[in-house]
Amino acid sequence: MCQPLANCLISIHLQLKLVIMQLAKVLKESFNVNESDFTDETLLMDFGEWDSLSHMFFITKLEEAYGIEVTGDEIASMQKIADIKKVITSKGKEL
């Protein structure tokens, strides 16, 4: 357990920032977008470089980055950035 509480909060904040930066990196590699180009409500298909092939490249990079396996149903559910975060957290990974 963290002591004092302030140290725990700083640690959690830094972990959160690293995980979000990791997602932003995967999105940049896959769709050539910057973190400032999207929000949780952004649709993947709105990225100019999005197509089915780049989507599968993204899924592969996402699985590698987070050490997870994504099912076909989960892939189909990933329409928005928020959907991606939901899948990652459902695998026990923290955002």
Automatic annotation (TrEMBL):
Residue ranges of every copy of the Carrier domain listed in the record: 23-85
Domain of life: Bacteria
SUPFAM superfamilies named in the record: ACP-like
Pfam families in alphabetical order: PP-binding (PF00550)
Signal peptide: none
Descriptive protein name: Acyl carrier protein
Organism: Niastella caeni
Lineage: Bacteria, Pseudomonadati, Bacteroidota, Chitinophagia, Chitinophagales
